[in-house]
Amino acid sequence: IVASSYGYRALQSALGSDTNLAFLKGSITAFLRYLEAPELRTLCGGSISRQLILKFVEEELVWNALIAAFASGELGPEGEEAFSWLLGELVSLPKSKALDFATLALEDRIRERLLQSTSQEVRLRGRKIVYIVDNITAKHENPLDGPGGRHDNDFADIRKIEILPTLDELASKDPYLPRAQEINERESRPGGLAFHLDSQFRLLREDMLRDLREEVQVAHDVKKKRRKSLSVEHLTLAGVHCDGRTPWSLQFRCTQDLPQMPNKSEKIRRQFLQNNNKFMRHESVARIETDGKEVTLGTIIREEDLLAENPPILCLQIPGKELERALRCLIGAESIKVVQLDTAVFAYLPILKQLQEIKDLSVEDEILHWETGKPLRPVDYSLSPEMSKELYKLKLYKFISNTSNDLRDILRLTRPTKLDHAQTMCFLLGLRNKVSLIQGLPGMFRTVVLRLS
To answer: In 104, 145, 177, 425, which residue has its Cα 20 to 30 A from 435's Cα atom?
Structure first.
């Protein structure tokens, strides 16, 4: 096609020979899926692929028919994936050409169809398309390899990011993570605190997402796992539950009792729940499926009164961004399944939330601007006269040289707390310095020393 002077003309003639829906869903979709092949993108740096794409859209009759079929939802899953790929390629062209197709991507009917598609692949591409178009039509452009636009939970501002990921986010394979060199350079500039908090949030959250992705891969039989996750099938949507701990949660009634629960009196069932707090653990993450398809992730709300019923009722909280789409899938579903995931999201949650809220850091100079050899600033407080007197009275330096030192009397603790020489030095340094680095192997009392200081 490319080598012949008549190749493109013949191609356009063939593509424009018919515009009915069957032709669009058949031959046109197959042609576009063929152009998606990675091997084709490598030819001449991708220039051949771009030429074929542009020649296709020059055939206005078939191009306009394809747009209309996509907007009306008539293309079907294969056709929608092909169209979303094509539009993504068109808006990724050099800006002078991409702007011609940006107006199409900005149309409400096209944007809604991309972002609300039942196909995860189409939704991910849709987010990328919207992000690219917003950048090329804005007065100030953000780098396309920066944060934002990869999926429905990717934003430049970390305060807009939901802690619990969406399924589209877990399926995305290119998370934005700041590089070490970029972190070192930007943290040392004026206003580096904001970037420091941003990078810490993203890196810590990605650590959490890695474990969640692995569990999802286990569910898809991509990876193997020693212990199988708790799975509850044949659920029915029962209503909404509200209590004093959480604003709301959806109720799912089991059609039969859970095999882990003792089939005995309510009192014994309640005792089982109290003795096994990891069973349907409060605020653990669960994956929800309807009719064999993943719908969303949710947070388990452990209501023991409802779990003790026979058959039990499960309560799950759905993230606000996912709620509307999840409800559309849940209502009328023939089969609902919930799989409890083991990733300790509840352990990450308070730290990530705090990183989103921090506006000022009292140790900013020590963490971001300290240089080797520069003395650390002393703490902003002074020991109470009583504490100073106690340390002086015990002859501090002799106290340090002892093999074991009990701080119970000095700190008025309820039980003996003995530290060795190194641990005692760490304790005293923690009292005197705003920032201290405590190192040691597991079981070396690092956490105890930190809490005492």
So the answer is: 177
Beta bridge partners of 296: 288
Distance of alpha carbon 29 from alpha carbon 433, whole angstroms: 67
Q: How far is CA 344 from CA 71, 142, 188, 223, 336, in A?
A: 41, 34, 33, 19, 24
In 171-325, DSSP assigns E strands to: 231-241, 249-254, 285-290, 293-301, 313-317
Residue 370's nearest CA partner among 328, 327, 433, 324 is: 433
Structure tokens at 448: 């105890």
Per-residue pLDDT tens digits for 364-416: 777 777 777 777 777 766 767 776 776 665 545 445 555 566 777 777 777 77
Q: CA 125 to CA 150: how far, in whole Å?
A: 8
The backbone torsions φ and ψ at residue 406, rounded to the nearest 5 degrees and listed phi first, read: -95, 120
Residues 6+ apart with CB under 8 A from 116: 123, 325
Closest CA to 60 of 105, 114, 95, 100: 100
Angle between helices 192-219 and 180-187 (to 10 degrees): 150
**C-alpha to C-alpha distance for 54 and 85, rounded to whole angstroms:** 14
H-assigned helices in 220-361: 266-275, 304-307, 320-330, 345-357
Q: Check if the beta carbon of residue 322 is closer than 8 Å to that of residue 115.
A: no
Q: What is the pLDDT of residue 393?
A: 55
pLDDT band at 140 (very low <50, low <70, confident <90, very high): very low
Dig out the tokens for 174 from the structure.
């290119």
Dist CA 308 CA 427 (whole Å): 47
Rounded Cα gap, residues 447 and 388, in angstroms: 24
Give the count of beta carbons closer than 10 Å to the beta carbon of residue 421: 13
Q: What is the C-alpha separation between 280 and 264, in angstroms, rounded? A: 19
User: What is the pTM (predicted TM-score) of this model?
Assistant: 0.60
Whether the CA torsion 58, 60, 63, 67 is positive or negative: it is positive
Cα separation values, 147 from 49, 157, 171, 188, 432, Å: 27, 8, 17, 20, 40
Report whether 438 contacts 426 (CB < 8 A). Answer: yes
- Look at the block and give the residue holding tokens 């003395």: 375
> pLDDT tens across 297-340, in order?
999 998 888 988 888 999 999 887 788 888 988 988 899 999 88
Given a contact cutoff of 8 angstroms between Cβ atoms, the answer to whether 248 and 240 are in contact is: yes
Instruction: Determine phi and psi for 76, rounding to 5 degrees.
Output: 80, 170
**What would the pLDDT profile of 330-363 be if each residue is shown by its tens digit?**
988 899 999 888 888 888 988 998 888 876 677 7
Q: Which helix (H) or strand (E) holds 340?
A: strand 336-340
Burial bucket for residue 334 (CB in 10 Å: 0-12, 13-18, 19+) = exposed
